[in-house]
């Protein structure tokens, strides 16, 4: 463990104590103050938009500034605006009906901040996937500690500096460091912990949090499938599939991970995807809008997966392009019918590589999807609404999109989260507010309440009331 990591681990404890004390002093942060927090997040995002793009590009080697603007800067501006617009209604108590035998009285649910929230954010969208849960936690009235990924150090340093401009560390703090710091972070007795990352690490996070009975939201990944039926034109399907798969070079948790298409459309679809990728990135090697792979280890892993599939008899189609030089870039790639036991079909790919396989009808496609772990997202392409509905009813996934890719993520009123191995819990919009608040049940009785009539000793009056 480095000296820096050791210092950060020591610092974590003091920051957590300071935030806990601050929360005890202000358990119910006012609506006005929460609005100020939301506005601060929005202002920071706008003020540092160029720096955010610069940091992402520095961390990836090549990161599309346009994609950073769309998926990180613009997304956070929209999320902050949505939260601000709806916060007052989210904070109101929810009245519930009272059964006749408990009248008179009133019952309601109060949404109360849980306390100190811990957030562990990943490297693939390092700004948005840190600031989005921070926004939700602040709207809920919580204090926040953030542990960003060590794989994007420029963005981590920038976020730490940004947040320090608007928030005292007793309110929002950033903890930097590597895996040892991350492991120690999961052992803090937070009032809620949100982790975004791999399923493997998610299991470790859940185990560590369980020692403190800390409630956890796990935003994981998995192999998000695409099912295409006979009615859908491969040329049309290729447009959103190419956009969703090759944005951020496939380093997206809800990117299409493999496609199941009718046998006679498999090759036309594969060729259409490559043609569309060639149109989108005429020279992917030098195109600043085609993002590089984040690390050498991940780059080598993806190339090994492609070569394993090739050795297993799969056909590899790739977009043409020049030499990327030292940039960790992999050409937009489609793999036709890779072996089912290959790593491409057993592991989440998280790169610009898309397996396309043949199915023998929708029942076969649904069965093959259900044979794997439940995915974070599922995509179905069909011109027939009944067919699309049949696929949705026959499968389970965290979210789903019909005739497009990934757009559900941008709907703030839709909860975003996984199921099974792709995670549990959700956030975005109201779901995020509810994640970081406790639904406190309250019953208010008048000074004298008829319930006193059923207290012991039990007699005839009790027998009459109890029968009802």
What does this structure look like?
The chain is an alpha/beta fold and 468 residues long. Helices cover 44% and strands 16% of the residues. It has a 7-stranded mixed sheet with strand order 10-11-12-9-8-13-14, sandwiched between helices. The chain has a 6-stranded mixed sheet with strand order 5-4-3-6-7-15, with helices on both faces. The chain has a 3-stranded antiparallel sheet with strand order 1-2-16. α8 links the parallel β6 (192-196) and β7. The termini are far apart.
**What is the helix tally?**
16
Query: Whole-number radius of gyration?
Result: 25 Å
Low-confidence stretches: none
Strand percentage lies at 15-25%
- How is the biggest beta sheet arranged? 7 strands, mixed
Assign the structural class, choosing from mainly alpha, mainly beta, alpha/beta, alpha+beta, or little secondary structure.
Answer: alpha/beta
Spatial ordering of strands, largest sheet: 10-11-12-9-8-13-14
Span between termini: 66 Å
* General form: globular
Helical content band:
40-55%
How many β-strands, per DSSP?
Answer: 16
């Amino acid at each position: 463990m480095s000296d820096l990591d050791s210092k950060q681990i020591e610092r974590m404890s003091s920051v957590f104590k300071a935030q806990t004390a601050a929360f005890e002093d202000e358990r119910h942060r006012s609506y006005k103050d929460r609005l100020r927090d939301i506005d601060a997040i929005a202002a920071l995002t706008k003020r540092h938009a160029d720096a955010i793009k610069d940091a992402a590009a520095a961390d990836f080697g090549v990161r599309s500034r346009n994609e950073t603007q769309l998926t990180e800067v613009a997304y956070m501006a929209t999320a902050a605006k949505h939260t601000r617009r709806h916060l007052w209604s989210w904070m109101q108590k929810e009245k519930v009906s009272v059964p006749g035998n408990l009248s008179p009285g009133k019952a309601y649910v109060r949404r109360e901040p849980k306390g100190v929230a811990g957030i562990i954010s990943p490297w693939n969208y390092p700004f948005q996937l840190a600031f989005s849960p921070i926004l939700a936690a602040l709207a809920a009235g919580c204090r926040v500690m953030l542990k960003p990924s060590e794989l994007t150090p420029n963005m981590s340093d920038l976020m730490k500096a940004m947040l320090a401009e608007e928030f005292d560390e007793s309110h929002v703090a950033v903890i930097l460091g590597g895996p040892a710091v991350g492991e120690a972070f999961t052992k803090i007795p937070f009032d809620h912990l949100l982790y975004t990352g791999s399923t493997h690490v998610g299991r470790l996070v859940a185990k560590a949090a369980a020692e403190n009975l800390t409630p956890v939201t796990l935003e994981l990944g998995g192999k998000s499938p695409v099912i295409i039926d006979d009615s859908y034109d491969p040329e049309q399907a290729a447009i959103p599939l190419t956009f969703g798969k090759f944005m951020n070079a496939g380093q997206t948790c809800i990117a299409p991970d493999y496609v199941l298409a009718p046998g006679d459309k498999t090759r036309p679809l594969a060729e259409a995807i490559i043609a569309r990728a060639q149109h989108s990135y005429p020279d992917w090697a030098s195109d600043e809008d085609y993002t590089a792979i984040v690390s050498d280890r991940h780059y080598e892993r993806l190339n090994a997966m492609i070569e394993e599939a090739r050795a297993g008899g799969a056909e590899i189609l790739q977009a043409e392009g020049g030499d990327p030089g030292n940039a960790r870039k992999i050409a937009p790639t489609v793999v036709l019918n890779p072996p089912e036991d290959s790593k491409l079909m057993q592991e989440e790919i998280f790169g610009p590589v898309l397996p396309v396989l043949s199915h023998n009808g929708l029942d076969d496609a649904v069965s093959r999807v259900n044979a794997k772990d439940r995915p974070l997202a599922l995509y179905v392409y069909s011109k027939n609404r009944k067919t699309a509905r049949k696929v949705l009813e026959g499968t389970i996934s965290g979210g789903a999109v019909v005739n497009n890719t990934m757009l559900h993520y941008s709907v703030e009123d839709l909860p975003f989260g996984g199921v099974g191995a792709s995670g549990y819990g959700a956030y975005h919009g109201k779901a995020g507010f509810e994640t970081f608040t406790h639904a406190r049940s309250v019953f208010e009785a008048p000074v004298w309440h008829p319930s006193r009539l059923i207290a012991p000793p039990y007699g005839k009056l009790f027998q009459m009331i109890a029968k009802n």
